[in-house]
Structures are given as C-alpha cells and as structure tokens.
Amino acid sequence: MTTHTTTTTWKHNMQFESTNPSGETFLINAAPEHGGAGAGLRPKALLLSSLAGCSGLDVASLIEKMKLEVADFKIETIANLTEEHPKVYDAVTVEYHFYGKNLDENKLQKAVNLSVEKYCGVMEMFRQFAKIDIKTIFHHE
C-alpha cells in the first residue's frame, strides 16, 4: 500500500506553507474577506486544480502515446459552491479545450474518456460528493 504525506505549517496570520510528497512547497492563504492577505492558493480551489491536473496528466500522456497533433490544451473547472456551512462543491463542470490545425477529435475524445472513466483517481474521489459534467471543446485553428 502506498501512502502520501504532506506537512502544512502555519506561517503567520491566515497563511500556511504545505509540502508535497515530491518535496515542492506552496502557500495556502484565506481570501482577504476572511482575514487573508491574498498571498497563496485557496484550499477549495486547490481541489479543482488537483482534479484538472490529475486528468490533464492522463490526457497529456495519451496525446503523446497516440502521437496526436495538439497545439495547446487546457482544462477549465467550474464548480458550484453550496450556501450553507460547511460549504462544499456539489456540482463541477470539467471542460477540456483542445487547440490545433489537425485535431483528431475521435482520438482526443477517447483520451478524455479514458481519463474520466478509468484513470483519474481524483475524478473518482469527486464523484463521491459532486455531480460531474464533462465537456470537450475543439478549437480548430
């Protein structure tokens, strides 16, 4: 069994520094309206970045393995935050945007589907608490 350990250390006021198992660090900070200075990432938004990063790594690997021509690729995550405490994401739309002249839409959609349905563990975690909507958008240049 594999375990991951992170250490999150209070720096001052509403700021923390967190380690990653790779040894990298990043700052977490509350929004100014909650006493933060805005110097750092917001905890809930980090979840969305983790979701996009996990799936994005899958898709990027598949783009390479399938030898697909893609000029650019980005993932937008749009999440609905509930009003009552504890505020949670109850619905998330994940939009995969592909840019290029010779996009193979069928293979790119297959790559997205493999990530969404089989490989992305963060996606599976999100399914436990949120409705997930997947959209794939092709921008032919």
TrEMBL record:
What's the domain of life for this entry? Bacteria
- Pfam family membership, one: OsmC
For this protein, the record's InterPro entries field holds: KH_dom-like_a/b, OsmC/Ohr_fam, OsmC/Ohrsf
| Name the UniProt record assigns to this protein | OsmC family peroxiredoxin
Q: Which organism is it from?
A: Flavobacterium profundi
